[in-house]
């Protein structure tokens, strides 16, 4: 039995992400993020389209509940983690950010339509870069900011036709989704700081969602949303099937996204998330048919162009970092000269 377990662990290590080059790791995680977040968002829109369902904030609650349960099981029984690396006082900020991001954005769906929410939340790339500069001391080029701006503008243009067809600009909804964007911009940078201190993905995922779950349970009980959703589910049993699949898919999607944050940084994760939101708008357009508009084409060009430009800039930076500097080459040449001189001056044996 021990041999079987050992063999299984060997196979697991062999086929883990660490066994692949960085470029392939990013490719695999990108596919996972696009696939599972795409399913996640389609399920979210399908649940919101259920007749009589008005408990948008409970989507965030069920998501946090599922992620907390799954990360606890994976952390304790699969990864065998028993100790926490980051101090417990590191988590209140993450809890506040996650609570605000999830709760406010889902509450906004009671006042604005789904594409409007997607567009507003897609514009967090630039504030994330600014916050990364403040918190993690990262420096971005003007080209990177232009690329990020192109992506954000592209998503706004892409959804402009949706606004024309079914405008839904309730000021309360716009305020809620804007506040969620601010919180969501801080979250990946704060997570990146914990990862730099040695915290695992499972540790950060579990403790952040655990404290968020406690806060959301109290708030949804006080507001009546938790009881209201349970009563709605007693009359419409399809809700529980939707919620079960929704929470499971959300956990896989969030786990893949957290791996991107840990391995490639918060800004890369947000750039990937922004591209994923573009895909979400396309899926929303295909699954829930809408009138065609050239705004969709223009928006797609801006988004893809911005993403391509950003990728080329990152690739150029990576090559520059791998190239030895002039001083390093000069120092190496001088060392070789000194070694040759020593060999020349040493007496022959």
UniProtKB/TrEMBL annotation:
What broad class describes the main subcellular location of this protein? membrane
InterPro entries from the xrefs? Answer: SCL35B1-4/HUT1
Localization (cell): Membrane
The membrane topology of this protein is: Multi-pass membrane protein
Q: Which domain of life is it from?
A: Eukaryota
Gene Ontology CC annotation, any one: Golgi membrane
Q: Which GO terms describe its molecular function?
A: 3'-phosphoadenosine 5'-phosphosulfate transmembrane transporter activity
Q: Which UniProt keywords apply?
A: Membrane, Transmembrane, Transmembrane helix, Transport
Tell me which Pfam families the record gives: UAA
* TM regions (residue ranges): 26-43, 55-73, 145-163, 207-232, 238-257, 294-313
| Name this polypeptide is given | Sugar phosphate transporter domain-containing protein
Organism classification: Eukaryota, Sar, Stramenopiles, Ochrophyta, Bacillariophyta
